[in-house]
Sequence to fold (216 residues):
Amino acid sequence: MKISYILAFMLSIALLSCGNEHTANETQEESKPNPGAQVDAKMTNPNTSGRLSGEGEAGGENVDLSMTDPSVGGNEMMPSQMILENITSNQKLSTLAAALRKAGMVNTLNDTGPYTVFAPQNKAFEALPATVLDELMKTENKQRLQSILKNHVVTGKLTAADLKDGAILNTVGGEQLKVAKQGEKVMINGAEVVRPDALSENGVIHVIDKVLVTEQ
Fold:
């Protein structure tokens, strides 16, 4: 009887030990990070190279024009950044940033250039006739959107001092822009430069108050 009691006691201890080890293993497995979750988180960060260069990305037609993600916008444009990075980091240019991605022009503005970009602020897009921007952002109108945006880009780095009154600028879209100066005010095809000379690694940005319409 004593031997049977001892054997039963030892068997119960062994079973209890195995159960504790199994529970510990389960706890360790549950605490391990999920690699898939990390990948998903990275892909949702607009500052990662995958998102920034994601031309034609899935769901592009439903781009949020407000770009309210706090990781985008609100930062200063800096000479050490590329043109596209500076546009993306400025909340007042968030609609332009979305349009450039939709038009597939990310790689162009990440190129060495240099380029001069006349960047319409958000209010300029809001001033367009109702539904115009919504139509341009549709996938079937990508080429039309791209043509319009290319006419805001000029090859070469032209600061405000280089923009002479009466000068004609040839855009990468094959159209021409006319410069007009009135004192310190600089106009590009009727759009006023409201913030000149935002220098970038591959060119310069001039923020304007209208979407450019080329003269016929």
User: Anything to note?
Assistant: Residues 1-74 have pLDDT under 50 and may be disordered. The radius of gyration is 28 Å.
